[in-house]
Amino acid sequence: MRAMILAAGRGERMRPLTDTCPKPLLPVAGKPLLMWHLEKLARMGVSEVVINTAWLGDALVDAVGDGANWGLHVHWSHEPPGGLETAGGIVQALPLLGDQPFMVVNGDIWTDFDFSVLPRSLEGALGHVVLVNNPLHNPQGDFALSAEGRVKLEGQKLTFSGVSVLSPALFKGVSAGRKGLRPLLQQAIAQGRLTGRHYCGAWTDVGTPERLETLEKALAGAG
Fold it and tell me: What region holds the Nucleotidyl transferase domain (predicted)?
């Protein structure tokens, strides 16, 4: 399985920290967020990783290079200023991701979720998403989950973690340009072709300096 790390965002809410440092390179417990992901991907046996860039992309390339330090082969997908949003970024990177389901992880999250439990085959589904308990900044959640593991739009909603396995078929017919992922996931839900799981472990969307500080304290306490 190949993987894509989404790292193109500007990180407006993290300013001034992100004025000179791309958000995925912000350190958590002494290690940049992006490096946590690269280490986990390498441990699960992933060898090909695509990373997209827009804001301060050169800094990301300088920090990661070709991925050899992690036993990975990293491909770079450079986007225009402002980025292409999630779906647009994936569409641009599809030639690097192959014709099989691939993993996608947001570069600005931290989680102890074990990536290796994600399905390698989607068995007819267009995607599989990891949902987590709703954080304070997203109390209404995003998607609901049936007892059979089908993602729904109605019901007790959970928050999309930013970790998923997606089929290239999800993006069939989608033109290039700035596009969000949610409309495509909603289409897959309407077709009954989006599965998911609820993860109750540690997860943080490192979207503000306050959340970064809280995560640092939590990991220091755990250590």
Answer: 3-117
Higher pLDDT, residue 38 or 209? 38
Could you tell me the CATH superfamily of domain 3-222? Spore Coat Polysaccharide Biosynthesis Protein SpsA; Chain A (3.90.550.10)
DSSP string of 187-217, one letter each residue: HHHHTT-EEEEEE-S-EEE--SHHHHHHHHH
Q: Which long-range contacts (CB under 8 A, 24 or more apart) does 217-221 make?
A: 219/28, 219/29, 220/29
Position 170 scores a pLDDT of 98
Phi and psi angles of residue 99, each rounded to the nearest 5 degrees, phi first:
-105, 10
Q: What single-letter DSSP state applies at residue 20?
A: S
Exposure of 223 in the CB half-sphere (CA atoms within 13 A) = 9
Question: Has this prediction a pTM greater than 0.85?
Answer: yes
Q: What are phi and psi of 85, to 5 degrees?
A: 65, 180
| Amino acid in position 20 | T
Q: Residue 61 and residue 74: Cα distance in Å, rounded?
A: 10
